[in-house]
Amino acid sequence: MHPNQEETPVTYPATVEDRSAPILSVRDLHKTYGRGPNRFDALRGVSLDIREGESIAIVGKSGSGKSTLMHVLALLDQPSEGTVFLDNQDTRNLRGKRLNGARNKTFGFVFQQFFLTGSQTALENVTLPLKIAGVGRRARRDRAMNALEQLELGDKAKNKAIDLSGGQKQRVVIARALVNDPRIIFADEPTGNLDSNTGRVVEDILFALNREQGITLVIVTHDEELAARCDRRIHIRDGVIVDGEQAAA
Ligand SMILES: Nc1ncnc2c1ncn2[C@@H]1O[C@H](COP(=O)(O)OP(=O)(O)O)[C@@H](O)[C@H]1O
Ligand SMILES: [Mg+2]
Predict the structure, then answer these.
(1) Ligand 2 mean position to 229 CA, how many Å?
(2) If pLDDT is split at 50, 70 and 90, which confidence band does 5 have?
(3) pTM of the model
(4) Confidence (pLDDT) at 50
(5) What Gene3D superfamilies does its record include (predicted)?
(6) Phi and psi for 233 in degrees, rounded to 5?
(7) CB-ligand 1 contact for 136 (6 Å cutoff)
(8) Pocket flag, ligand 1, residue 67 (CB < 6 Å)
(9) What is the pLDDT of residue 19?
(10) Residue 78 has what DSSP assignment?
(11) Which contacts of 140-147 are long-range, i.e. CB under 8 A and separated by 24 or more positions?
């Protein structure tokens, strides 16, 4: 063997079992809203690696850029500058159907702005992502029921979402996030609207999914105790990471 061959860089296999490989990496993200006098730089150079299987809290004051970062990480919004890599793949190459496909297959969302449809049943709400993914009727029902049962909501499947308690609604949201077998769950203030006991139950569910199924958690929160339960905390101030592990350049 030529001695130089030993210097060939190691490539990281991005398998689910490999908990050290970054599933998501971002480099030098910038996000600007508006223009002219209304221009606002919400992200100003954020780099971060998220490894498969870890739990990360994104913390910072209101308006610091947490939700903006989460939306860019989750491929719901594009950065003005910078790169998002999913499994080492530059996501700029993903558009339209392939982008939607990658997002649906890989991510689950627990966001307050993704409301449940109150007039539909818990089961119908959980079925929706599977409908979008083109899963057949029978498999949709089975998988959605399965997810609801996992969240101990099997007996509420036929109840309209509007008739459920706050904690039950949030569990339906988690069931809906789980139904596509995601590798990452993004949660924006998942306990924000819940009383502390119910919030704790919802947290326990998220961390059990992390521990038992290896689902990566990315959680935006104001809640210090919730942040403390995560493997790692990323502090954001005025659109930059001020504390927490920065990715290697
Ligand atoms: N669509 C938008 N247009 C203009 N400004 C926005 C928009 N979205 C967010 N911002 C501004 O960007 C900053 C960061 O917002 P956001 O990421 O929602 O903060 P956080 O989630 O930390 O409270 C805030 O000052 C907010 O007003
Ligand atoms: Mg926010």
Answers:
(1) 20
(2) very low
(3) 0.88
(4) 97
(5) P-loop containing nucleotide triphosphate hydrolases
(6) -120, 135
(7) no
(8) yes
(9) 54
(10) -
(11) 143/179, 144/175, 144/179, 147/175, 147/176, 147/178, 147/179
Least-confidence region, from 27-36, 67-76, 151-160, 196-205: 196-205
Structure tokens belonging to residue 19:
């908990």
Cβ atoms of 54 and 211 closer than 8 Å: no
User: 162: which 2 tokens?
Assistant: 């509007």
Atom 1, ligand 1: residue with shortest CA distance: 33
Give the DSSP H or E segment for 81: strand 81-86
- Nearest C-alpha neighbor of 178 from the set 144, 138, 142, 132: 144
Nearest CA to ligand 1 atom 2: 33
Ligand 1 near 46 CB (within 6 A): no
Per this entry, what is the length of the chain? 249
Q: Whose CA is nearest to atom 18 of ligand 1?
A: 67
**What ligand is nearest to the CA atom of residue 58?**
1
User: pLDDT averaged over the chain?
Assistant: 89
- Decide: 66 in ligand 1 pocket, CB within 6 A: yes
| pLDDT given at position 243 | 77
CATH of domain 54-64+97-243: 3.40.50.300
